[in-house]
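ok new one. same drill as before - structure tokens go in, u give me an amino acid for every spot. 576 of them this time. try not to just spam alanines like last time pls lmao
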């Protein structure tokens, strides 16, 4: 991916994603992770229908689910898929399927695939163990004394049951309140099936009350199965599903967010919640790798006393390998468990999503900057300047202040282009931009309008004399001799001044008034400044309306200086 391309989160995310036609169920797009799950290269995956790669028993179920989602408009669903690889192996995939509508109105399915074959295999192995390996069973009387016990589901449980033959369950397992509680419920006549945690293992306990001769419960039969492996597998699956949900949520927000602040806040909060961290913060990274401004922070640390041990922490870069844009720092409390490999992979996946989003935000910011700034000088362009001017006029009306505009045109600039070339002319324009920036007051806005035309927006101007003083500094700065291609040159400027209130009263009119004043100044000779008054527009309109005067202007090759000023004056003559 080149610097100018927009990053594709579809390919960046470290999760399997596929895009499928809503009507034909054919895969139109699949990232590398999805191809890996399906065991096929992308060239073979594209064009396949899900029915083609599902196991025969699941084909109709998948098609029926797709029809149901399309008919009901159900936006999101989750289902388990069994998929056939070319080598004949079956992949169990947990799929989140989202019904989307493209820009052209066409509906399609966006699916994530999570390969859970290992978890399913672990579940099946556990089932085989339960079916083919002896489990712990016992029979206890009403007093809790064990009458008979067999099996080795849990060595500690087996030892306790053996001891309870001489005493009772209530004495032997007194430190396991949940076990005692379910035994009392069974003796009261309730069939109990609960999972309890005992002796460091998860045990599935079935208790069946057996009626005695008098009708009341005479004894309790029990079957105990160790299901620790299954519980761990399910817990791992829940964790991974939660991680994928976080990544998917951040990925969606990264695509839709208009500014990065909310996305960063969401990301650090999600990391703190999911990873049990008490401190997460993200910082911008400067051009040379220096730590920049704070992007977002979650701090749940409990101060006051110094910790007895160092916190458990990680720092992860955000961005590309050769362009780190930000860093994420995450800490767990002192004494907490270290981050697992899976948690580190999850953290890097989140960083990948944020990195792609950061690149997008940076690119969009650059595009916005270019659309509002002159590419040669870096100054605000006409659009940006008028926006500044309109906002300045609104503030001025609210605060009962005045805004001034200087319209500047270089004298003799065409001769520089004609004799030294356009590259030399570009150097002059860049140098002029620098001189104008130094000549005006702090807070004044210098912009380039077009060609050799510049403008300066001056807020909070008390009087015409204040604006004239700024114009004099501009003229003095422009008149300083300089070397261009080892040749001394002196370029002067013609400056038109316009001050707001009561007329002109909007940005376009104020800039146009300064333009007319600049035209009058240029006709009076180079290096002059003249302030606008309404009579200038009237005289200019009259000149353009008189055939002999217009012919004289054309014969005198003076039309270039009129430019759009004259046309604008005619258009606005009725408003002033």
């Amino acid at each position: 991916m080149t610097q100018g391309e927009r990053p594709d989160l579809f390919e960046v995310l470290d999760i399997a994603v596929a895009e499928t036609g809503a009507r034909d169920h054919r895969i139109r797009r699949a990232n590398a992770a999805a191809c890996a799950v399906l065991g096929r290269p992308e060239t073979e995956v594209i064009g396949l229908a899900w029915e083609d790669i599902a196991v025969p028993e699941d084909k109709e179920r998948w098609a029926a689910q797709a029809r149901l989602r399309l008919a009901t408009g159900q936006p999101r669903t989750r289902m388990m898929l069994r998929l056939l690889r070319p080598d004949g192996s079956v992949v169990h995939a947990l799929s989140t399927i989202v019904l989307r509508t493209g820009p052209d109105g066409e509906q399609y399915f966006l699916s994530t695939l999570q390969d859970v074959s290992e978890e399913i295999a672990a579940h099946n192995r556990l089932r085989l163990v339960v079916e083919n390996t002896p489990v712990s069973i016992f029979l206890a009387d009403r007093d809790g004394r064990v009458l008979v016990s067999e099996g080795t589901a849990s060595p500690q449980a087996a030892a306790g049951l053996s001891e309870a033959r001489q005493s009772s369950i209530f004495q032997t397992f007194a430190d396991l309140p949940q076990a005692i509680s379910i035994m009392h419920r069974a003796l009261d006549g309730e069939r109990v099936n609960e999972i309890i945690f005992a002796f460091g293992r998860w045990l599935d306990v079935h208790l069946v009350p057996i009626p005695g001769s008098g009708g009341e419960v005479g004894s309790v039969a029990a079957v105990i199965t160790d299901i620790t492996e299954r519980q761990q597998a399910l817990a791992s699956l829940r964790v991974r599903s939660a991680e994928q949900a976080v990544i998917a949520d951040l990925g969606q927000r990264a695509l839709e967010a208009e500014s990065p602040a909310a996305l960063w806040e969401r990301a650090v909060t999600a990391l703190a919640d999911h990873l049990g961290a008490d401190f997460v913060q993200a910082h911008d990274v400067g051009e040379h790798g220096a730590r920049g401004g704070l992007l977002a922070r979650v701090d749940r640390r409990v101060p006051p006393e110094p910790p007895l041990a160092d916190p458990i922490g990680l720092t992860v870069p955000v961005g590309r390998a050769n362009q780190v844009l930000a860093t994420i720092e995450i800490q767990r409390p002192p004494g907490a468990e270290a981050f697992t490999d899976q948690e580190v992979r999850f953290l890097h996946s989140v960083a990948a999503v944020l990195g792609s989003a950061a690149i997008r935000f940076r690119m969009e910011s650059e595009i916005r900057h270019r659309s509002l700034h002159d590419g040669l000088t870096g100054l605000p362009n006409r659009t940006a300047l008028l926006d500044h001017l309109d906002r300045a006029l609104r503030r001025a009306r609210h605060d009962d202040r005045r805004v001034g505009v200087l319209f500047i045109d270089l004298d003799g600039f065409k001769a520089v282009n004609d004799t030294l070339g356009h590259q030399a002319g570009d150097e002059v324009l860049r140098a002029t931009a620098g001189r104008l920036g130094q000549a005006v007051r702090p807070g004044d806005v210098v912009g380039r309008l077009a060609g050799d035309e510049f403008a300066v927006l001056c807020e909070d101007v008390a009087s015409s004399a204040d604006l004239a003083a700024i114009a004099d500094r501009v003229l003095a700065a422009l008149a300083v001799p300089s070397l261009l291609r080892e040749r001394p040159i002196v370029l002067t400027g013609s400056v038109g001044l316009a001050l707001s209130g009561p007329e002109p009263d909007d940005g376009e009119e104020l800039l146009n008034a300064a333009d007319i004043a600049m035209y009058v100044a240029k006709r009076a000779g180079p290096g002059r400044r003249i302030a606008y008054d309404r009579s200038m527009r009237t005289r200019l309109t009259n000149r353009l309306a008189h055939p002999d005067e217009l012919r004289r202007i054309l014969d005198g090759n003076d039309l270039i200086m009129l430019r759009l000023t004259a046309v604008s004056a005619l258009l606005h003559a009725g408003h002033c």
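The CA atoms of residues 304 and 333 lie 14 Å apart. and btw The first strand starts at residue 16 and ends at 21.
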